[in-house]
Design goal:
Shape: elongated
Structural class: mainly alpha
Strand content: under 5%
Number of helices: 2
Number of strands: 0
Amino acid sequence: MQKSFKTQTLHALEIAIAFTPWIISTLVLYWLEHGEIWTTETAHRGKITVGILAVGMGLSFLVHSHFIKRDQN
């Protein structure tokens, strides 16, 4: 049985919201590089990059988990 258009739209919106923190963290990294805020000589650049991406991905996971848990109840 097909899902209704409203249900499909809501699900797509939830996925977009769940991906938002990860996309923002990627944009922050782009902004830091493009704006020449940091260069290859910046101390601990790799660690900071991993930290920014981990926070973005972790928040995306938590938001998605919240939506899944809410749907199960």
